[in-house]
Amino acid sequence: MGTRAHEPCPVCGTLVRLPDRLVSGGVTVGRESDLCPRFRGRQADGVRHLKAEISMCPSCHFAVRGDFSGVDLTPDERDELAERLAGDGLLKVFGSASPGRPWLPFHAAEVSGKGRDLPARELGEICLRASWVCRKELDRPFESAFQTRAIRHFIRSLKEDPLPDRTLSVVVYLVGELNRRLGQHREALNWYANAERTMRDGGLEGLTWLERMIEEQSKLAEAEAA
Ligand SMILES: [Zn+2]
């Protein structure tokens, strides 16, 4: 029996119960083609594992991946974040609904992350995870919405963030795969080809799983486009 940790919200000071870390280390059995982990056990457990990554304040909806310990805000930043969170439409509509939507903490983490100027790649990772949770919950419209947002952040990160070769190839592949899942097959094929090129340029022979994935998903996109 572990005692659950509480931490004050860096924005409004509310004492927040952090997600139970015990559930975060779920046993994964492989990954889907958009790198969503497959968890052993029931679908609901998978959602719980994914959600355990995010800490969200229930009063102001400030949210981060991990816990609040690394968050250090100036009073101005605090005010700005509080305003941004209070003005967000989705948080306004779904923030007090019970039971809460499973994607809400991820959306809150994206809004908070934008307010803290997190790198675009980090925002993309948050939206990608939100899309995984939506898929596990069979919420198709929100899955697509978060995939679209992940693509936008990832493309910006390719322009702005210094990505190591390995990460670069994975991000480029993901932009392709998310496009394919959204039915944009030609876009997807272009991005898969780009991903292959970045692997060649980066001399990434060791990443055979990614090579295999690019090849399989390219074939799939070609078949779907026909
Ligand atoms: Zn708060």
Report on this structure.
This protein is mainly α. The protein has a domain at 1-126. The protein has nine helices and six strands, in the order E-E-E-E-H-E-E-H-H-H-H-H-H-H-H. The strands form three sheets. A two-stranded antiparallel sheet has the order 1-2. The chain has a two-stranded antiparallel sheet with strand order 3-4. Strand 1 and strand 2 form a beta hairpin. It is globular. Zinc ion binds at residues 9, 11-12, 14, 57, 59-60, 62. This is DUF2225 domain-containing protein. It comes from Rubrobacter radiotolerans (Arthrobacter radiotolerans). InterPro entries: DUF2225.
List keywords for this structure.
mainly alpha; 58% helix; binds zinc ion
Radius of gyration: 18 Å
Structural class: mainly alpha
The overall pLDDT, averaged over residues, is 91
N-to-C order of helices and strands: EEEEHEEHHHHHHHH
- What is the 3D shape? globular
Q: What fraction, in percent, of the residue positions are helical?
A: 55-70%
Separation of the first and last Cα atoms? 55 Å
| Tally of contiguous helical segments | 9
Organism: Rubrobacter radiotolerans (Arthrobacter radiotolerans)
InterPro entries: DUF2225
Protein name: DUF2225 domain-containing protein
